[in-house]
């Protein structure tokens, strides 16, 4: 279907929804449905329109509320199959949204409950849709998806078992609980009360359809296939529930693909399924080199690539395969050859993020000069497409110095960097900026320090804190590579770390404090250093607490020295998990030895040195002080005298007890 026709059809559907011309929309969808259902239209717009993401992601202002619009449609047209199917799909999407959580965190009970309450509404809508059409493929397919992701509601299981389902409040005594209130709050946020009463029987089309012991996803797959044979979308969803993400594996998917269940699909369609399964395997944990699994995957890949595949599928396979091949064959050139093949698929073919970083690392950091044409193609296409901020900036750096097969075009570079920065701002993703740091390091390893410097300074000019921070080390010649003397500049380094710190970058705050304390590029500034230590501490930088205390002992007033010795350092010692605990004990011991912030006492100092050696037996500094304090008769006499002054108490005992706990 031409792109313009597709866009026009989507606009038409959104317009009919927004103006609530539901009868007109229903008639149009039913006419489109015939060709799709009978599989006579290869590129039917129907499959595209039958998705909430298509219908409700336009530029309408204010944006359409899917639940409100579809509920209105279902009320005005109670016999509309499409209204109920789409309503069920939106309820299902809301269930996923409620169940979403941050990485590393578990889904809370109230989220599970809120999601399940949404699923109840979704299933009710799908069951109504099943009553309204003889071939309800989408309703069956999405019942399969819902069952695979959330399981069937208890009341639907009861109906299939020939029982009358109990109302919610009779089945579960949860209405008065905190979890119930929190779960229901998710529905209240959508403007609905939970459903509590259920149908008393199944739609006629579902009577006696479930086999004994049959899993729900298998049942709904069978139902969908019975009304639309060899439905690719349904089978793709079914196979997804047998992928590694859902506790299955690519081997499990392959067994299904080669089973009678897929017999009605064409070889081309089965190859598409095989490609999806292989992508699942290649994107997971890489099999050990020379293992049977690695050999099997390479053979499967070679067999599949020899078949007829659509370009997007071939690109997706090659994108994932290149890094794996390089590892399995222990040869960067083998991986680069895969990406050469990827570029040959089409003039628009581009590898993904991990492949991009591999190409840079293989060619620049690992010095694989034979792979330079692959890097050249990558950067050339990055410029022609200009939609990937990382690659646009990388290409600009290459053009600035005429590197990596690109001509020297410095006059283009500023505009390209502006464009790359604009793309980053639009995406709201910090990862491209971090990736560019890695690429700058790759350039430096390849001795292209001018290009690396250009890339970092341009990003810093646009306000990238991480590049300002990198430039601090670059200008101080403490970067990962030796930096030519013409770049060494303490004043520039100080400006860069201040900029990064002011942007809110916590490690830069700490480094900035250290630089101010040192007097980098000027005179030491104790007050500013102490302020940055405090800001870093407030932002959660643990080491800043120790360095603030040591700075006060070195440069602070008498009152600040006392505060550091009597409060700040002991606070660190009270924290058994603090990373600078041993250093704090040593510094406090030296304060007692020199009388800084406290009254000089060699016995107490020696106790702290012994405490340091308990925590870190490798501390040569503490061992040397301890040996000097105990190394002669006069020294031991001094310890005895100071012990009497302290009444023989061990000031480290309280900290030792916390270490034991």
UniProtKB/TrEMBL annotation:
Record-given protein name: DUF4034 domain-containing protein
Domain (DUF4034): residue spans on this chain: 12-275
Pfam family, one: Sel1
InterPro entries given in the database record: DUF4034 (IPR025115), Sel1-like (IPR006597), TPR-like_helical_dom_sf (IPR011990)
Organism: Rahnella inusitata
SUPFAM superfamilies cross-referenced by the UniProt entry: HCP-like
Superkingdom as given in the UniProt entry: Bacteria
Region (Disordered), start-end ranges: 641-661
